[in-house]
Amino acid sequence: MPKQILVVDDDRLTRRSLELHLQDAGYQAASVCTVAQALAAAEEQPPDLILLDIGLPDIDGLDGLRIFRARLPNVPVIFVTGRRRELDEIIGLEMGADDYITKPFDVDVLLAHIKAVLRRSSSAGEPVFDNTLVVGDLTVDPAAHEVQVSGQRVELTPKEFDVLLYLARNAGRVVSVADILREVWGSEWIGEDQTIYVHIRWLRTKIERDAAKPERLVTVRGAGYKLVSLPELV
Fold first, then answer.
1. Residue 149: which region, alpha, beta or left (left: phi > 0; alpha: psi -120 to 50)?
2. Which of 55, 8, 6, 13 is nearest to 34 (CA)?
3. Which residues, other chains included, contact 77 with Cβ-Cβ below 8 Å and sequence gap of 6+?
4. What is the pLDDT of residues 79-129, one digit of tens each?
5. Sorting pLDDT into bands at 50, 70 and 90, what band is 3?
6. Taking the model in full, what pTM does it have?
C-alpha cells in the first residue's frame, strides 16, 4: 500500500503543489490548512508521515507538534518552514520532529527527506536486545528507554536518547559527527551537522553538572565526542 502523507500548510497553492508532487512520486496525499483539520483527517485516515508548516492560522506549528506527539506518537513529522535557519527548526527537532526542510526547496530534495524519514521510522519499532549500559554514575537502559544520572531519572527526547545510547555503546572511544549521523539518523540523512551540535548541547544540559564545562560528554577537538565516566577524569 502506498504511504499516506498529510500536508498541513495554510497556503492553498503550496498544498495543491505538494499533493500533486507526492502523488506523482507514488504516495497517497491529503492536505489541510489547520492543526484541527489535520487531527480530524488523521482520525479518518491515519497518516504515515506529516509535513507540518510552522506558520498556521489556528495553532503555531510548534504547538501543533506537541499535539501530534500526544495524539499520534508514532507518526513521523517533518517541519516545512520559510524561516531559514531559525531556532524554530532546531527547537522543533528537540521537541520530537523527525526532520525539517526550509522553503523554497527543490521537490526532489523534499522527496529524499520523506524517503529517509519513512525508512528510519519503519525500523524504529525493531526489538532492542541491549543490556543496560553503565558509564560511571550514568546508566542507559535501551529496553526501558530510560536514562539515570546518580540514580535520578533524566527525561530525554527520542533523538537525545538515541545519541546518548550510541555514545554509551562506544564509551571511552571518540566518535565523529559523521559516525553519529550515520548511526542515529541513518546513511540517507541529508540534513546538516548543526543538528548534532544542538543535540549534544541539550544532552549536556541534562547529564552534566555544568553544561558549560562538560565532564561526561567531552569534545575531542578535531575528532568528535567521547562519553566518559567521572572517575576516569584527571
1. beta
2. 8
3. 49, 50, 52, 65, 68, 69, 96, 97, 98
4. 887 765 555 555 656 666 788 887 778 898 889 889 888 887 765 555 445
5. very high
6. 0.65
Alpha-carbon separation of residue 149 from 135, 156, 161 (angstroms)? 10, 12, 13
Q: Starting from the edge strand earliest in sequence, which strands make up the sheet with 146-149, in order?
A: 133-135, 138-141, 146-149, 152-154
Question: What confidence tens digit (pLDDT) does each residue in 198-225 have?
Answer: 889 989 999 999 999 999 999 999 999 9
* Domains contained in the chain, CATH given: 4-123 (3.40.50.2300), 133-232 (1.10.10.10)
> In which residue are the cell numbers 527547537 written?
91
Integer angstrom CA distances of residue 214 from 42, 101, 121, 200, 217:
43, 31, 32, 10, 6
- Of 69, 58, 75, 56, the closest CA to residue 14 belongs to 56
Cell numbers for 80, please give them. 516545512
* Axis-axis angle for helices 61-71, 87-95 (nearest 10): 10
Q: What are the φ and ψ backbone dihedral angles of 82, each rounded to 5 degrees?
A: -90, 0
Amino acid 118: pLDDT? 87
Give start and end residues of each alpha helix (H) in the chain. 12-24, 35-44, 61-71, 87-95, 107-123, 158-169, 177-180, 194-207
Euclidean distance between CA atoms 29 and 39, whole angstroms = 15
Instruction: Note whether 80 and 99 are within 8 A (CB).
Output: no
